[in-house]
Amino acid sequence: MPGTGSAAHDRPAHSWGRMSDGTPAGVAIAEVLADAGITHVFGVPGGYSIKVFDGLRAVADRVQSVRAAHEHQASVMADMYGRLTGRPGVFTGQGPFAASSGGFGLMEGYLSGTPMLVLTEMTDHGIPQHAPTQGTTGDYGSVDLPRILSGMTKYMSVATTPNEAVHAVELAIHHATSGRPGPTAVLFRLDAIFRRADDARHPRLYRRSRVASAALPRPDASAVADLADLLATTKRPVIVAGNGIHQAKAYDQLDALARRAAVPVVTTAKARGVITDDHPWAGGPLSPFGWQGAFELLARADAVVVLGSRLNPHDTLVESPTWLDADRQRIVQVDIEAANLGVSFPVELGVHADLGALLSELVPAVGVDEDLAADRWADLADIKSRSEDPPVLHESASPVPPQRVMQVLNDVWPSDGRITLDAGNNRIFAYHYLKARTPGRLHLPGGHLGMGWGPPAALAAAMVHRGERVLSISGDGGFLMSLHNLATAVEHSLPVTFLVLNNQMLGNVYDFQGPDRRTAVDIDDHDFAAVARAFHMDGHRVDDDAALADALASSLASDGPALIEVSTDPDQSSDLVRVRDSRSP
Ligand SMILES: Cc1ncc(C[n+]2csc(CCOP(=O)(O)OP(=O)(O)O)c2C)c(N)n1
Ligand SMILES: [Mg+2]
Questions:
Q1: Same CATH fold, 391-577 and 221-385?
Q2: What fold characterizes domain 391-577?
């Protein structure tokens, strides 16, 4: 291989850029990541990505290289890292695997607006036209990685020289974190990663200044005044809080706005838990498996203030006018991405602003007449009084109904415990019945809703928030796709509790089939607890709610990973919690 220059890796990191013979590209890239505050890089070394890991040795005091068990896992860990920190979640690996298995996390991040960066490579050997084995340049006979990755990233660059590589990483960080965040990709050709970055060449490398994102957009003063006026004068306003609240980490400001303006808050699916369920003005979650009351609030609203959401059809029951109707309601939308304003529903006012900046100006500006506040309060109380817990939440049974599992968690799991969800009926019941008791602690795949997202997301959360115990909830189908995550939990001694709801089937798919058309949904009764023990971690199998509560308590008392498999009732259908739209045409 030409120009590997590995001896230079031992030079002090701060000297790069002043060295006349340049800096190995991998080291220069690693420095850009460290300067951006990125503390973890996830991945599986292979092909030229080995040089990325090699470069990371130079910044090992600031950036931890995490060998993943699978590119799928690495990409989800990067997605979760991005969600939690607001900095790009970085993963690296060889081209074909970064884009295929790693495409899982990238797609989820793309659909959920997560800042991410994939550093990958093209195994071109300097002769891309001859399509080497594993080659991904898109030349005749090879896989076209740029085309594949550009379909799931908001910025993608192919670097052919070291300076291009370093600059592309700077720009990728900028693009990942500006506007609506999202994944970005940099693809290295041989020379880009095996040679040295050189100050004498273009593009010039300014380092830190390039890594910093552009200033966040601030609202103009008249928009803040108009919003405050709308909240103070309309009879039944409702706030729809979206994923933008997570992205801006504006939990406290949302809480304050709801109280000061005396306005109920409903949340989109991706924003489940941005406000606690026991907040006096919480109206509940939207989406087909949200709360009927949240939709009733929307139906009665004369004004809707949308904070950081595109109003995805999933959240609005496919835009049913029963709930949201721009002819009947005054709709105002605030978004950090100008293109999102009015994209799903026409809006009376679109405010292009960072939510944190907007809320810090809006909260002190709002005020509402006491009588009006009391009237809104009575309306919210009326809606809430009509929702009752079904008896199944509180009754003992074996196998355990999934609803009851969620109630046990509400009783046993700490109120500030971080929880990741997966896909399927287990997720639907968790979404509906788990109580959000601390803002921003429920994490779910809101983009493609893929099975196998929750367990690696929990690992990343436990790495970012060292010492916190994280709960991962999945079904037996989803967990079957996730077994390798147990190895990583053990290797890093991560305090993660993997809760597997075993109903011996793809329950959510069966809901669409029914007994007469049952096909391709049965799963053998695998012994997941024994699998966990084979990885040298705690594994329990429980069949009733009391044993479940005990097992959860014992995992809370331990420092390491644990798996709890609970036999759940296969007859509980997600239809039990589906929102009804009896008034739609
Ligand atoms: C990776 C992936 N493949 C397929 C689907 C489609 N899908 C949605 S839910 C589901 C079944 C999930 O089964 P399980 O994890 O056992 O959960 P349950 O519904 O039984 O609670 C499937 C196949 C998906 N969401 N993700
Ligand atoms: Mg299942």
A1: yes
A2: Rossmann fold (3.40.50)
Q: Which of 422, 386, 358 is nearest to 300 (CA)?
A: 386
CB 559 within 8 A of CB 470: no
**CA–CA dist 391, 404 (Å, integer):** 9
Question: Which ligand 1 atom sits closest to the C-alpha of 474?
Answer: 15
3-state secondary structure at position 97:
helix
Is residue 424 left, alpha or beta, with left meaning phi > 0 and alpha meaning psi from -120 to 50? left
Q: At what angle do helices 402-412 and 545-557 cross, to 10 degrees?
A: 40
Name the CATH topology of 13-197.
Rossmann fold (3.40.50)
Predicted confidence (pLDDT) per residue in 88-99, tens digit: 999 999 999 999
Q: What is the pLDDT of residue 299?
A: 97
Contact (Cβ atoms closer than 8 angstroms) between residue 49 and residue 121:
yes
Query: Whole-model pTM?
Result: 0.95
**Fold for the domain defined by 221-385:** Rossmann fold (3.40.50)
Q: Is the peptide bond before 402 cis (omega within 30 degrees of 0)?
A: no
Averaged confidence pLDDT in the chain: 94
Pairing between strand 183-188 and 155-159? parallel
Domain range annotation of the chain: 13-197, 221-385, 391-577
In 32-115, the DSSP E strands lie at 40-44, 64-67, 89-93
**Ligand showing the shortest atom-to-Cα distance for residue 502:** 2
pLDDT tens readout for residues 488-510: 999 999 999 999 999 999 999 99
CB burial readout 89-98, b (16+ within 10 A) else e: bbbbbbbbbb
Phi first, then psi: give them for residue 282, nearest 5 degrees.
-70, 130
pLDDT of residue 207: 67
Atom of ligand 1 nearest to the CA of 427: 21
* DSSP per-residue letters across 438-459: STT-EE---SS--TT-HHHHHH
The answer to whether the CB of 205 falls within 8 A of the CB of 269 is no
Q: Which atom of ligand 1 is nearest to the CA of 428?
A: 21
Query: Contact, 91 vs 98, CB < 8 A?
Result: yes
Q: Which residues line ligand 1 (CB under 6 A)?
A: 423-426, 449-452, 474-478, 501, 503, 505-509
Between strands 196-197 and 23-24, the pairing is antiparallel
